[in-house]
Every structure is written in C-alpha cells, then in structure tokens.
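B., you asked whether I could sanity-check this one before it goes into the benchmark set. Here's the sequence:
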Amino acid sequence: MLKLDTWEPDVPLAGEVGGVSTVHGHYFAHAGHSASSFAHLLARHSFDHRMAQRTTAWAHDLRGTWDQPAAGDAYAVLGWTTTAALRTALSRRLDTLHPVAAFRLLEQPEIAALARSTHDFVILRGSHGLGNDWPPEIAGAISGIDLDLWPETGTTDADGAVALDLDTYLHRFVGTEFAG
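And here's what the prediction gave me:
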C-alpha cells in the first residue's frame, strides 16, 4: 500500500529487480494514484513550474521495450500549471483579441471547461509537435496556441504544447518517467 504523498513503482521494469529505475531513469505507474499525489511528485521534480529534468509521459505500457517505443506513444512533460494561471493567461489573451475572435476562443469546449475547473494541469508536447487533430491521449487539452501556459510572457518553451488536467493525464497515460 502506498502513502498518498509517495510514488513508488509497483512493478519491476526492464532490467531492474526493484522496479524503481529503468535504463533511462525513474518510472512511476499511474494506476491507483490520485491527481493530488501526482501534483506533489511534479512539484518535487520541477523548478518554477518547469521540469528540472527530462520527463516523459507514456501513453501505453512499454515495459520491456524501451529501445523501440512506438511512434506517438511518448510525450515530453514540460512542466505544470494551475487553473488560476491559465485563467489569468486567458484573460490577457482575450484582451488582445478582436471581439469575434475572443468569442470563438471562449466557445471552444476546452476553454469553456477552464471556467469551471479547479485542477492543476500538466504541460505536454508531442515528439512531432501537435496540430489540431489531437490524439486520444490528449483529447480535451488546452493548446498553447490559444493561451500562454506559463505566467511569464515571452517564453517560447511551450510552443506546440498543450495543458491537460491532472485527472485526465493520469487516466490517459500509464506512467511518467523522470530521467536519471
């Protein structure tokens, strides 16, 4: 049984007896964990809401196949943000838009859901960038094209990135790996 605030893998991974380390770093399976405990894990591995080390979200269980992951199954985790920060960014973005464009932005289901949200978000980017056709793993994500994903202006770190709420992230991705 795991404590709510600790994350330890519960299954052995390729080449490891304990299941804590992989060839690439530390892998944490999402099954049975809460958004709150994952938020603490992200906070421990980040600085100023950006990941302090290379972090990967795995869409499929790839244990034992680290040398040949399937295309589109891995996403870079760039960092995390809060609902309050995204709402502030949305407000700034709306102020700069023509009223018709602002109205269209507010009609998007992801943006409309932000008004009712109280969740934190994981910021992801696919290996080949992300267009308008979201893969099932990130359906419902908020695009960095529509609003700034971090409070500071002028950062291009999040180009092509999306923000996905933690509950959806834990449901859609099987694990997160932090480079060792």
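One thing to flag: Confidence is low (pLDDT under 50) at residues 1-20, 64-72. Otherwise nothing jumped out at me.
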